[in-house]
Structure formats: structure tokens, C-alpha cells
# Entry
Amino acid sequence: MKSQILFILFFFITNYLNAQNAYIDSLNRRLNEAQLGVVEKMKTYNVLVEQYRIAMLYDSASSVNKQYLEFAKYEKAQTEITKAYVNEGVILVNQEKYDKAEVFLDSVKISSSKTNDKIAGAYRAYFMLYLSKSLNDYKKAMNYGLNALSLLEETKGNPVLEFKINYQLYGIYTEWNDLENSKKYAQKAVEAALQSGNKNDLSNAYSAMAVVSTYQYEKSKSIVDFQAVLDYCEKGASLYKKFPGQVSDYSYSIARNNKASYLLTYSKELTSAIRHQIVHNINESLLISSKLPHAQATQTASLGMLSNLAKRDGDLDKAEEYMLQAYAVMLTQNPIYYHIMSRVVGDLSAIYERKGNLKKALEFQKKYDEYRALLFNQSEAEAVKKLEVQYQSEKKEREIQILKEREQNQRKQKLLYVGLGCIGLIGAFFMFRSYHFRLRYSLEQEKKLATEKQEAELLLKFEKEEQSRLKAEQQLLALQQQKLQGEVMANQLHIQHKNDILKQLKDKLDADKAVDLKQIIREENLLDNDFEKAKFQIKEIHPNFFQTLNEHAKQKLTSLDLKYCAYFYLGMETKQIANILNVEPKSVRMTKYRLKQKLGLDSAMDLLEYLKHIEKN
# Structure
């Protein structure tokens, strides 16, 4: 009966494997259809590459992706070119060829920068997330993932890419034991997979929810949470049969193994029903994984659980048989996965020790030590390799950042130069306007100053002329005054002479003396003529005669002294002067001597000549 059941399972599994191959063949045939549109052809290429990748047929995936890239380049579809570069990078990361994947990261960055499509930017961020997570740089990976989701929010949406991003973020938070965020992004992965219709993604999303539920169950120990774990496992596995060819064999095999593992680990009691479920899930996983080229780890896990069941039953021979099968399977893997291999040989050593076969136990213990050493060396080598790639990546990012900063600085400098140029032009314009204004103002001021200067000069000239006029008037008035003074003095002298004559005549008449009037009148007429001539000379020829005389005198001259000087100047004789002044001639001579002293003349100097000399000066 058991062999019949296994035969039936094998029959069904074979059909499902054929269905998957048929699905891949249908995709290849569709690419060759002439009526297939560009958009549909791009989509088909993308799906086919993903099918080969999840089947671990990396050479086939890479080959189809190159066709996809060439077609995208021919159509000049920049976003599709970015997707193709991302696909190739992910394929290389899956093969742990991180250094080559780093080269494609540069291609992704360049291609995505040539378009404004946010989808291309989101694919770039997703690949950086994928690469960083593979290099165990979870913090940087998370930032890239959040950036990718932020870019997608600005688009109409891309459910396929949304699933990939949310699934990777779920993995990061699971590594950090952050149940809340792990569950959040697992649920978002389920939503995105349902929206996209990709059944393989949906199967993986349900498996992610099963993992999250195990964390919840470990905390609550609630049967409800445990049942949720089993339900999500079954949901993920059941899609394989509901949609033949659309769920990868690896996804189905892992989903069955996971359910068997949860039942074996968390079941409080291994009832026959639970045991039947465990064996059923393990057998289905083995029938699938045994036909896959790179599923040694999955087969080993299945055989390990069967060995565990045998040990629980106390059947060490059966346990040994399963582990030897697992050991043989792991030896076919190239390169050998040392982590799993060390566990396999370690379990064999323990089984042989329990059976009392110490030789075999020691043999496999030595193998265990060898594989652990190889694992350590491999881990170190991988760590160094990852660190090297991470260093190169960070170095490139720094260089790119420096180039960006340099470009920004150059742009800022250009803007600064343009700004300074504009400011310079504006400044020059205002300087020109200011200069023009100042020049005009200066010319106006100069003109105004010239006018004011001219006015001032005219005013000064006028003032000078006015001063000259006033001075001339003053001089004229002074001259007239001097003339009048001279004339008054001359007239006074004349009047005084007349008065003296009249007095003499009166005295003579009073004394009844004989008076020759004709003789007196003739003498007076002669004297009048001389006096008029002298008066004219004094007034016209030398108006400053008396002033000059006073200036040259050593002592102050009295008005009588001036009279004598006037008579002497008129050329009158001593006797005439005596008669006029009614004094003795001796008195006239004494006065003349005294005048010479006052005028500072020596005895040899003639007074008349001195007076004439003053007249000439």
C-alpha cells in the first residue's frame, strides 16, 4: 500500500514537473510569435528570465536576459534596459559573484539616470537593496528598500517589484528579530503578489507569513497561532497543484519541508495523524527535490527529518540509512555546502557513537572537524570577499558622491559666476547711471559754480567798482573839501586883508588925514589880481598845499602860521605882509625865522623855494 501511494505521488509530481517545463516552453514559443506586441514581449522576457532564475538555471536565465537587453536597447526603452541589467545583477548575486554584480550596478545606475521614469529608479534601488542584503549590510539594504518603495509611491504602481522589495525587507527584519515589521512587510508581500497574479511570489509570501507566525507562536504558545503557521504553509504549497507550472519546484519543495519541520518541531506529541502529515510532506518534497539539479540542501533537510523520526522511534539503523543517503546527496553538490555537510557527518558520528561503533564515530567526527575547518575558511573567504565588494562599492559610492558634490559645486560656481556677472552687469549699469548722473550733476554743479563764480566775480567787480566809486567820491569830496578849505582860507586871508584896509581907511578918516583913494584902490586891484592868481594856484594846482605843509612840519602849524606861509607863497614882501597883518616888518621876519624852524629848515634854505618845492610835489 505504501509503495502504491509513493507511485501515485511520483506520478503526480512528474506531471507537475512536466507542467513547469511546459510553461517555460510556452513562454519561449510566445517570444517567437510575430504578432506579439513590444510591451507583451518585454513582459514575457522578464517572466522567462525569472522562471529560469528561480529554477537555478542561471546560464539559461542569463542567455534569455541578454536577448531581453538587446531588444530593450533596440526599442530604446530605458526602463526595460534598467530591468535587464538588474536581472543580470541578481543572477550573479545568486551565484555569489559579487564582484561581477558590482559592475552591473554601475550599468543600472547609468541606465536609470537616462530616464525620468520613477520605475527605473525603483529598480535601481531594489538591486542595491538585494546586493547590500547579500553582503550582510542590512542597514544600508533597508534604506535602499525604503527609498525604492518611496519612488514607487510616485508611480501608478508595479506589484511585481513591490513584492520583491517587501519580501527582502521582511527578510531583513526577520534577521533583526523584529516581529512587528517582519509581519508588516510579509503581509505587504502577500498583497503585492495577489495584485500581480504571480503565483510563485504568492507561494513565497505565504511561506514568509508562516515564518512570522512561528515567532508569534513561540511567544504566545497559542494553538491558534500554531494553526496559522500550518495554514500558511499549506496555502503556499497548494498553489503548486492549483496552478501547474506557475509555482517553481523549489518553492513547492521548500514549502513542504517547512510544514514538516514545523510539525516535527512544535507538535507537543507525535500522534499517528501528525506523523502521517510529516511523512507526507517530506515525501512530496523529496520526490520534487530529487529531480532538481541544485536541490541537495532541500533533499538533505528532508532526509534529516526522516532520520530524526527514526531516532525518536529508536531505529538507529534506519536513522543511519537516511543520514548516509543525505551524506551521499551532499557529496554530489559542487561546491559542497560545508555548513550542511558538517551537520550531516556530525549526526552520523553521534548515531555511530550511540550504536557503539566508535571507529565509525571517530571517522565521521574527524570528517566533522575537517568540514568545520573548511566551513570556517570558506566563511572567512566569503566574508573577505563580501568585505572587498562592499569596500569597492562604498569606494565607488564615495567617488560618485565626490563627483556629484564636485558637479554641484561646479554648478554652484557657475551659478555664482552667472550671479556675479549679473550683479556686475547690474552694478556696471547702475555705476554707469550713477557716473552719468554724477557727471551730469558735476557738469550742472560746475556750470552752477561757474555761474556763481561769474556772478561772484561780477558782484566782486561791482563791489570793487562800487568801492572804487565810493573811494573816488570820497576822494572827490575830500578834494572838494580841501579845495573849499583852501578857498575859504584864501578868502579869509583876502577878507581879512580887506577888513584891515577898511580899518586903516577908517582910522585915517577919523584922524582927518589925507587919503589917496585912487592909489589905495589901484594897489588893492593889483593885490587882488595877485591874490586871485595865488588862490587859483592854491585851489587848482596844489589843492593839498596846506595838508602837505602840515605833514612836513616838525611842529604843529597854527592858522596864523599857515597865513604867513600863504603870503610868503604868494611872493609878498615883508612890508606888504606887515601892512596886511598890521604888524611890524620885524615881526614878519621873526615869524619867517620861526616857520623855518617849525618846518625843519636850516638858515641857508630859502622859505619861498621850499614852499614852491612843496607845490611841485
In short: The chain has 23 helices and no strands.
